[in-house]
């Protein structure tokens, strides 16, 4: 029974997660190069570009959470911007109203997003994926007026403006560089966390849920338990990303977290690559740079590009850019045979 | 001269091949029984004829190619298929189900006349006309499925296990009606059946299918008389 | 008491609009099992077409007819071009494709017509009907009348025409529908065309009340989801009754629940969706229970 389970998983997992020795070597090599570049970059780039890269990392953390849910557990959320907002506001309110030192706001933001995710996940996860999409979309739309309502706490439509974290003198870093490294550390930390989570029993259970719910249930995977947990974790990661967002931007307002954010996040992870670890990074680059570059053409250009790309990706490469790259890498050794 | 000519028909699902080159012919107005054990490919053969599975090889009806066409096109060529599970439109009324049988036909008056004709075969359907098809008994649903097929005025009628799940008495009645239909309408019939005894009772020709190949063909009498066949393929003693 | 009745009338007017978009959602769900997240955006796009025609000097009612025809053709084309390639794919894939369509149509409208709000003409006269202490705007009556008319036409189509019979057959048993000779692919496209047409009606009805802009339908979509969930995703009648209930519930909650007020009314459909999913997942008039995971 356990034997057959394992083979099932291997055949049905997206190509990018199939570990041939060559692909593994490639991956570690690429990862090392990437990390060196990531550390080197802020010393070479102008502050504005450093800021942009910081935002890529922030989005990547949120997408990591969304990927856990959509890519690994096969559930859809159209409202992840809401959890991002919850994290951002938790951090902002704690810094502004409770004068909490900023590093402490991250675990609180994570916990709040996790608990809200758990609370919403319990009813939503008892039902089919479709309804989860519906409920999460409604939540994302509902959150904006809700934030505006609790003005004493959230600052209403005006939002909250905060002092950005300043680099300690011993680092010798500029503010943008310091924020970048904070985001990098959070990103690397959460990536390692998720990677080890996916390698554990839990990861296998999630894949079983995604690939065949009925079979997973027959095998004794407690479906609703793992689905709810995946939802809560992904909410937590979005919350973590949100708190870093608050530090980086130094400002939160309801209109930063409209349903468009949620939809952009989904677009990012679909285009970046569902079910792969590099998907969130590629997706983060997308969410950051496609709008900033294409907006020069027309305000609507990012939406047109995202919309078309999402549809195209679902047709030709359901595992996104990361999956496409994985497939290409796999093909290289094959040709030599 | 055969009306339905099947030649080298190959069919399957995905990579799994179920039929490995089946050839036979059925004369106009005859009943042909396809017998054989479970998993022999009987249902697949019917599905191949009506375009529900991908095929290679040919199957012509009166010279027109059926193989490789879509089910809706095959239906428009005059082939009525009563599929496994009867294909009833459960939430629709009995009348809707019957009218759907004539979906591709034109001519209101003729269709109304055919409805009445079908009530002569299946009087019970007339009393259930406005009832949901899903509320009928198994036997009534099988009658409805036959009635729906007849509404096409088919040139070829494909019946998949009409006896499945029915009481013996109901089954016998059903086969009697099929025989009557065949006699009165001169409809060519291919019937797939586990209950070989019943099928051979109304058929002129029969073929025994095993693992996707025809292993024995003959008149119904010949097949029935072949004691060895009876034991090994049909599962009963003569 | 009169105030209460007044609120109900207002709620019915809003509910009729939700009902029409919910009807469009249910039409597609019945045929294909797909919940079309882009339904609201398609309606918005149709409304822009009507606006463009009116702005070009075409009379409102002629513009409406042209818009409905174009929407019908557009809906069919979208089914053939966008949805057909993922037919039979996992639900997640199809949902994502309709979300992609949502983003694309929204942005395309913004590109063509900009994101600035536009005034949309109200086709109904401005006055009101006085019924005792209750005032019923002609525009509310008009909306109710149009939605009633659409319902009636759909009923006639489905129950009394051959095409409608074929469509019901495809909705209940596509494999068997093929066997009786129905061209299932075209029928599905027809379903999308019809849904786009019904959606266009809801867009044209809502635009005079909300102002026309590309994000106009996002909120309405949530109400329509709530209506369809409440009525049952496989029941057109349920969608309409669900829409009216949602409209009334929203108006009453906004008027009488101090905390909700006018700004948090969008929370009402969310609560309705959650409550229905937990208490009666198949909805009030739905046949099959939604598969539980």
TrEMBL record, chain A:
GO molecular function: branched-chain amino acid transmembrane transporter activity
One Pfam family named in its UniProt record: BPD_transp_2
Keyword terms of this UniProt record: Cell membrane, Membrane, Transmembrane, Transmembrane helix
Entry keyword Cell membrane: yes
Membrane-spanning intervals of the chain: 26-43, 49-70, 77-95, 101-122, 129-147, 178-198, 229-253, 265-291, 303-329
Main location: membrane
Cellular localization per UniProt: Cell membrane
Protein name (Swiss-Prot/TrEMBL): Branched-chain amino acid ABC transporter permease
UniProtKB/TrEMBL annotation, chain B:
Keyword terms: Amino-acid transport, ATP-binding, Nucleotide-binding, Transport
Keyword Nucleotide-binding found: yes
Domain ABC transporter: 4-236
GO molecular function: ATP binding; ATP hydrolysis activity; branched-chain amino acid transmembrane transporter activity
PROSITE patterns: ABC_TRANSPORTER_1, ABC_TRANSPORTER_2
InterPro entries referenced in this protein's UniProt entry, alphabetically: AAA+_ATPase (IPR003593), ABC_transporter-like_ATP-bd (IPR003439), ABC_transporter-like_CS (IPR017871), BCAA_Transport_ATP-bd_LivF (IPR052156), P-loop_NTPase (IPR027417)
Any one biological process term the GO annotation gives: L-amino acid transport
Classification via Pfam families: ABC_tran (PF00005)
Family membership noted in the UniProt record: Belongs to the ABC transporter superfamily.
Protein name (record): ABC transporter ATP-binding protein
Species assigned in the record: Nonomuraea terrae
UniProtKB/TrEMBL annotation, chain C:
Annotated compartments: Cell membrane
Transmembrane segments: 12-29, 49-73, 94-116, 136-158, 188-210, 216-233, 240-260, 266-285
Protein name: Branched-chain amino acid ABC transporter permease
PANTHER family noted in UniProt: ABC TRANSPORTER PERMEASE PROTEIN, BRANCHED-CHAIN AMINO ACID TRANSPORT SYSTEM PERMEASE PROTEIN LIVH
Entry membrane topology: Multi-pass membrane protein
The keyword Transmembrane helix belongs to this UniProt entry's keyword annotation: yes
Residue ranges of coiled coil: none
Annotated CDD domains: TM_PBP1_LivH_like
Keywords of this entry: Amino-acid transport, Cell membrane, Membrane, Transmembrane, Transmembrane helix, Transport
Main location class: membrane
């Amino acid at each position: 029974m356990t034997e057959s389970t394992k083979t099932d998983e291997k055949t049905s997992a997206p190509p990018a997660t199939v570990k041939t020795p060559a692909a593994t070597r490639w991956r570690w090599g690429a990862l090392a190069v990437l990390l060196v570049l990531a550390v080197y970059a802020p010393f070479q780039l102008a502050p504005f570009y450093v800021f942009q890269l910081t935002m890529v990392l922030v989005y990547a953390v949120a997408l990591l959470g969304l990927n856990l849910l959509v890519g690994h557990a096969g559930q859809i959320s159209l409202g992840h911007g809401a959890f991002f907002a919850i994290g951002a506001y938790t951090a902002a309110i704690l810094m502004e109203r409770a004068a909490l030192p900023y590093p402490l706001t991250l675990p609180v933001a994570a916990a709040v997003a996790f608990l809200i995710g758990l609370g919403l996940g319990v009813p939503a996860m008892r039902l089919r994926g479709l309804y989860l999409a519906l409920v999460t979309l409604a939540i994302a739309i509902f959150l904006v007026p809700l934030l505006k309502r609790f003005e004493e706490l959230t600052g209403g439509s005006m939002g909250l403006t905060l002092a950005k974290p300043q680099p300690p003198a011993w680092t010798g870093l500029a503010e943008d560089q310091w924020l970048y490294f904070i985001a990098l550390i959070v990103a690397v930390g959460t990536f390692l966390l998720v990677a080890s989570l996916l390698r554990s029993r839990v990861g296998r259970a999630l894949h079983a849920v995604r690939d065949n719910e009925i079979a997973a249930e027959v095998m004794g995977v407690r479906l609703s338990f793992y689905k709810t947990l995946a939802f809560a974790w992904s909410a937590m990661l979005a919350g973590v990303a949100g708190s870093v967002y608050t530090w980086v931007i130094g400002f939160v307002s309801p209109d930063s977290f409209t349903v468009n954010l949620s939809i952009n996040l989904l677009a990012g992870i679909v285009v970046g690559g569902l079910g792969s670890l590099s998907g969130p990074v590629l997706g983060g680059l997308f969410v950051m740079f496609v709008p900033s570059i294409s907006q020069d053409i027309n305000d609507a250009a990012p939406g047109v590009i995202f919309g078309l790309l999402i549809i195209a990706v679902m047709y030709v490469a359901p595992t996104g850019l990361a999956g496409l790259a994985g497939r290409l890498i796999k093909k290289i050794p094959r040709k030599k045979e | 001269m055969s009306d339905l000519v099947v030649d080298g028909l190959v069919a399957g699902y995905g990579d799994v091949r179920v039929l490995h080159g089946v050839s036979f012919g059925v004369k106009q107005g005859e009943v042909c029984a396809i017998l054989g054990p479970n998993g022999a490919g009987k249902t697949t053969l019917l599905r191949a004829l009506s375009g529900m599975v991908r095929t290679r090889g040919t199957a012509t009806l009166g010279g027109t190619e059926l193989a490789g066409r879509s089910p809706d096109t095959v239906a428009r060529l005059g082939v009525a298929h009563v599929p496994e599970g009867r294909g009833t439109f459960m939430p629709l009324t009995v009348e809707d189900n019957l009218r759907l049988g004539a979906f591709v036909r034109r001519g209101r008056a003729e269709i109304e006349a055919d409805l009445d004709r079908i009530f002569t075969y299946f009087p019970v359907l007339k009393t259930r006309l406005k009832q949901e098809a899903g509320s009928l008994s198994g036997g009534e649903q099988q009658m409805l499925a036959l009635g729906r097929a007849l509404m096409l005025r088919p040139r070829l009628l494909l019946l998949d296990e009409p006896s499945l799940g029915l009481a013996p008495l109901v089954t016998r009645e059903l086969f009697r009606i099929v025989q009557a239909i065949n006699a009165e309408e001169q409809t060519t019939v291919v019937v797939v059946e586990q209950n070989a005894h019943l099928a051979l009772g109304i058929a002129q020709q029969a073929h025994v299918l095993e693992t996707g190949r025809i292993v024995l063909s003959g008149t119904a009498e010949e097949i029935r008389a072949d004691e060895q066949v009876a034991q090994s393929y049909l599962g009963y003693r003569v | 008491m009169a105030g209460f009745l007044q609120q109900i009338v207002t709620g019915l007017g809003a509910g009729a609009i939700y009902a029409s978009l919910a009807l469009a959602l249910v039409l597609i769900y019945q045929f294909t099992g797909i919940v079309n997240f882009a339904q609201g955006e398609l309606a918005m796009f149709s409304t822009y077409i009507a606006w463009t025609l009116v702005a070009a000097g075409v009379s409102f009612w002629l513009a409406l007819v042209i818009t409905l025809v174009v929407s019908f053709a557009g809906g069919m084309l979208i089914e053939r071009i966008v949805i057909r390639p993922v037919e039979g794919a996992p639900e997640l894939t199809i949902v994502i494709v309709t979300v992609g369509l949502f983003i694309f149509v929204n942005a395309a409208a913004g590109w063509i017509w900009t994101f600035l709000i536009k005034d949309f003409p109200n086709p109904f006269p401005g006055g009101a009907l006085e019924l005792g202490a209750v005032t019923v705007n002609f525009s509310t009556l008009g909306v109710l009348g149009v939605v009633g008319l659409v319902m009636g036409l759909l009923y006639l189509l489905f129950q009394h025409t051959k095409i409608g019979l074929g469509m019901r057959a495809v909705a209940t048993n596509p494999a068997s529908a093929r066997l009786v000779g129905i061209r299932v692919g075209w029928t599905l496209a027809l379903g999308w065309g019809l849904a786009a047409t019904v959606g266009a009606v809801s867009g044209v009805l809502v635009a005079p009340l909300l102002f026309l802009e590309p994000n106009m339908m996002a909120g309405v979509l949530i109400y329509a989801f709530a209506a369809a969930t409440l009525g049952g995703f496989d029941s057109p009648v349920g969608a309409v009754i669900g829409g009216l209930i949602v409209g009334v519930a929203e108006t009453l909650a906004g008027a009488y629940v101090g905390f909700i007020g006018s700004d948090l009314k969008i929370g009402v459909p969310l609560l309705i969706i959650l409550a229905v999913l937990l208490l009666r997942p198949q909805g009030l008039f739905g046949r099959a229970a939604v598969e539980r995971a």
